[in-house]
Every structure is written in C-alpha cells, then in structure tokens.
Amino acid sequence: MSERADKTSDDDAVFKALASATRRGMLDALKESPLTTGELCARFPDLDRTTVLQHLRVLESAELVTGRKIGRERHLSLAPLPIKRIYDRWIGEYARAAVELLDRLDTE
C-alpha cells in the first residue's frame, strides 16, 4: 500500500471516529485533562461501560486517544496529531480557499 493510501485510510478512521457525538464528547472530556477509564465512563452515565469501551476502541484505532496502564488503572489521554493532520489537509485548505474567494469577490 502506498504512503498516500495509508494517509487516506488514517484520515478515514479519524473521520469515522469524529462522526459520533458520543466520541466527540469523549475527546472533549480528554481535552480538559487525562482520565482513567472509570472516570471516562462516569462522564457518560447514560451509557453502560461496554458501550463506552466500544467507543474508546474506535478512538484508539484512529489514534485519537492513547492509554497507559498504571497499576490497576488505565489512564487515557487525547492524542491531537490526527486532528491536526485533518485540519492541515482539509479544514485549513478549504478555509483558505473560501477566504481567497471572498477577497476576490470583494475586490471585483
């Protein structure tokens, strides 16, 4: 598989992870500070632990969340690089193009 195909696959995993409001909420919680798995589960009282862990697996497979074991606890942290990659590749490019278009319309 080419490097470009790898990046496309990585981007697809990030977009899939970000498609869920629950997973975006988990990222918001981890943006504030690292949490243990139990603390993350407590932030989503409407979901059972198994469902939270399923969402967490999607975030980890997209490399948006990292976890490390400390004793009996698993500490989770936000890994912002995939989001930055999406911003650099998609959002930044399209925002720049939109600003240029508006500038051209304004000057014409």
What are the defining features of this structure?
108 residues, alpha+beta, Arc Repressor Mutant, subunit A, 69% helix, elongated, ArsR-like_HTH, DNA-binding transcription factor activity, WH-like_DNA-bd_sf, ArsR family transcriptional regulator
Question: Would you list the SSEs in sequence order as H and E?
Answer: HHEHHEEH
CATH topology: Arc Repressor Mutant, subunit A
The side-by-side strand order for the widest beta sheet comes to 1-3-2
The shape is: elongated
CATH class reads Mainly Alpha
Q: Indicate the percent of residues in helices.
A: 55-70%
Largest sheet: 3 strands, antiparallel
CATH superfamily: Winged helix-like DNA-binding domain superfamily/Winged helix DNA-binding domain
* Average pLDDT score: 89
Q: How many distinct beta strands?
A: 3
InterPro entries: ArsR-like_HTH (IPR011991), HTH_ArsR_DNA-bd_dom (IPR001845), WH-like_DNA-bd_sf (IPR036388), WH_DNA-bd_sf (IPR036390)
Pfam families: HTH_20 (PF12840)
Protein name: ArsR family transcriptional regulator
GO molecular function, one term: DNA-binding transcription factor activity
In short:
69% of the residues lie in helices and 13% in strands. The chain is of the alpha+beta class.
Overall description:
This protein is α+β, with helices and mostly antiparallel strands and 108 residues long. It has one domain: Orthogonal Bundle (Arc Repressor Mutant, subunit A), CATH 1.10.10.10. The chain has helices at 3-18, 21-32, 37-42, 49-61, 81-107; strands at 35-36, 65-70, 73-78. A three-stranded antiparallel β-sheet has the order 1-3-2. A hairpin with a 2-residue loop joins strand 2 (65-70) and strand 3 (73-78). The longest helix has 27 residues, at 81-107. It is elongated and about 65 Å long. The model has no long low-confidence stretch (mean pLDDT 89).
